[in-house]
Specification:
By secondary structure, this protein is α+β, with helices and mostly antiparallel strands. It folds into 2 domains: about 1-135 and about 140-210, Chloramphenicol Acetyltransferase (2-Layer Sandwich); about 240-465 and about 480-515, Chloramphenicol acetyltransferase-like domain (Chloramphenicol Acetyltransferase), CATH 3.30.559. The protein is about 25% helix and about 20% strand. It has helices at about 25-30, 50-65, 115-120, 120-125, 190-210, 225-230, 245-250, 275-280, 285, 315-330, 340-355, 400-405, 405-420, 420-435, 505-515, and strands spanning about 1-10, 20, 35-40, 75, 90-95, 105-110, 130, 135, 135-140, 165-175, 180-185, 260, 310-315, 365-370, 390-395, 440, 450-455, 475, 485-490, 500-505. It has a 7-stranded mixed beta sheet. Strands 1-6-10-11-3-18 form a 6-stranded mixed beta sheet, covered by helices on one side. Strands 2-5-4 form a 3-stranded antiparallel beta sheet, with no helix packed on it. α10 crosses α13.
Length: about 525
């Protein structure tokens, strides 16, 4: 590997000095792994390598002018006990447009790999057979760390931030003449949807630099105004005390309340303790605070020492339609079950079975990452920039999960999502605004009792083209390789299908790909 360029980039247009507190939900995801994506392009370059670097850099800076906060300093807001909700402990803010801005970390490297050594094409991946499953690419040899920066982002350990960037970009030139673009952001600055607003704008701006004819940006112009989300919270979130009714409404919602702070619990990972300590207010302040109720986390069910496998599954459109039809035709099925509802119902039962829990009375959970943009009132635009997401779940004993019909489980998924009405969102945001530390509670979990799903559907990841006429060979959502993580995106294969990235305990994955799928559904 050879480094060609390593620098910090700033917006082409200098922004006015500004300080912006981030939203209630941005604060809750500060502990999450960074939001990141990798685009690998096989086509040989139509221009000199240096010309491509220059045009990517120039178009990036032009695009960054519409996202100036991402070049600013992400940090904690100074704590003011008598201030508003954004001045409580561990509330993030971003300062930008000053001489102290850290900028965006920009790195350009060369790597001797070829694109065809990294991954098969989308069509080839969809035609592979692994065990009993057609369309299964075992991606354990794919090393995402080659294509994204290894350096820490601001607040990565919930403490350090001075001089650290909130955003990193790495351009990797490959031996075949192709290249990869990897982007990574602190999660409280952007979820996948916000990331894609940027990437699509950057790609369109880059195409103009290459003289390609472009259409208007796929996702539109960005809107960065965190207060739009906070204004959707019910009650007075700047008062000293919670509203009891709103709090009770929030606590009745299907939201896990696992506490990171209970470090004495059995199985608690020692490696997490330093970051956990950074998420606690000073003892003299904590003694005067009332900590909200929580649930003991099932740490013994998550063995960090066990190897985890990564497999990308392709589900063709006709197969998804069949799942949906089966679920809707079920006597217990709802008429509004989506293709995704049915697919997740099928996958969850398959994973539970592959984990050997079909006869178990222990609880298992399907944790679902949901976006808040369309669920609050007034609804936020699709181009709202931030990380307005939360996690809900369905659950039950492993044995009943595997006995349920596809329609029953899919209906439970749909019913749970439907619980998050604008009124419920008001209550949830109100409750979250008063948390002693927003990073104390985790609404999801991983390990053998949990399957955590995040959807990147309808974000058009394969429509990213920086030079014109060069679509990506492979798009990878940068996820931690941990047991129970599932990510869904639209497939590049032209069959209206979906690609499912699954990270699972190695033995469970072998069972899943062998004979672990739900009986009678293949």
């Amino acid at each position: 590997m050879t480094t060609i360029e390593s620098t910090r980039l700033f917006p082409a247009q200098q922004p006015t000095p500004s300080t912006a507190p981030l939203s209630i939900l941005d604060a809750t995801v500060a502990r999450f792994a960074p939001t990141g994506g990798i685009w690998i392009f096989q086509n040989p370059l139509n221009s000199d390598q240096q010309i491509l670097i220059d045009k990517l850099r120039s178009s990036f800076r032009d695009t960054l002018s519409k996202f100036p906060q991402w070049a600013g300093q992400l940090q904690w807001a100074p704590v003011n006990p008598d201030g508003n909700h954004s001045e409580r402990f561990n509330r993030p803010l971003v300062k930008y447009g000053t001489d102290a801005d850290p900028g965006v970390e920009w790195t350009v490297i060369e790597h001797p790999l070829r694109a065809d050594e990294i991954t098969p094409t989308a069509e080839e991946r969809a035609s592979l057979t692994t065990g009993s499953r057609l369309g299964a690419w075992k991606g354990d040899d794919f090393n995402q760390n080659l294509f994204i920066s290894p350096n820490p982002l601001a607040l990565a350990n919930l403490r350090d931030y001075i001089g650290l960037p909130g955003m990193q970009v790495q351009i990797t030139f490959l031996a075949c003449g192709g290249y990869a673009i990897g982007v990574k952001l602190a999660h409280c600055l952007a979820d996948a949807q916000a990331l894609m607003v940027f990437v699509h704008l950057w790609a369109a701006t880059s195409q103009k630099e290459f003289g390609s004819e472009t259409e208007p940006p796929i996702m539109g112009e960005p809107i960065f105004n965190p207060t739009l989300l906070d204004n959707c919270a019910g009650g007075d979130i700047d008062s000293r005390d919670r509203d009891r009714d709103l709090t009770q409404t929030a606590r009745n919602l299907p939201l896990h309340r696992y506490s990171w702070w209970d470090t004495a619990d059995e199985g608690y990972p020692q490696v997490c303790i330093p970051t956990t300590e950074n998420s606690k207010p000073p003892a003299e302040h904590l003694d005067r605070m009332k900590v909200s109720p929580s649930t003991p986390a099932p740490w013994p069910s998550w063995d960090f020492s066990r190897p985890v496998s990564y497999t990308l599954l392709h589900f063709p459109g006709p197969e998804l339609a069949r799942f949906q039809a089966l679920a809707r035709a079920d006597p217990s099925g709802r008429a509004d079950i989506s293709r995704l509802d049915a697919l997740l119902a099928y996958l969850w039962a398959s994973i539970v079975r592959a984990r050997g829990q079909a006869d178990s009375s222990r609880p298992v959970y399907l944790d679902l990452s949901l976006g808040a943009r369309a669920r609050v009132s007034p609804a936020l635009p699709d181009t709202f920039i931030g990380s307005p997401l939360f996690l809900t779940h369905i659950g039950g004993p492993g044995s009943s999960t595997c006995r349920e019909t596809l329609g029953e489980t899919a209906s439970r998924i749909r019913e749970t999502m439907d619980e998050f009405t604008p009124d419920a969102m008001q209550a949830m945001l109100h409750d979250a605004a008063f948390e002693v530390s927003p990073q104390r509670l985790w609404q999801g979990f991983l390990g053998t009792q949990h399957t955590l799903v995040t959807s990147w559907l309808r974000l058009r990841l394969y429509d990213v083209d920086f030079v014109g006429g060069c679509r990506p060979r492979y798009v990878h959502a940068a996820m931690p390789k941990v047991d129970g993580c599932v990510q869904v995106m639209d497939s590049e294969v032209g069959d209206r299908g979906m690609d499912i990235a699954i990270y699972l305990d190695k033995e469970a994955m072998e069972t899943l790909l062998g004979d672990g799928y739900c009986e009678g559904e293949m």
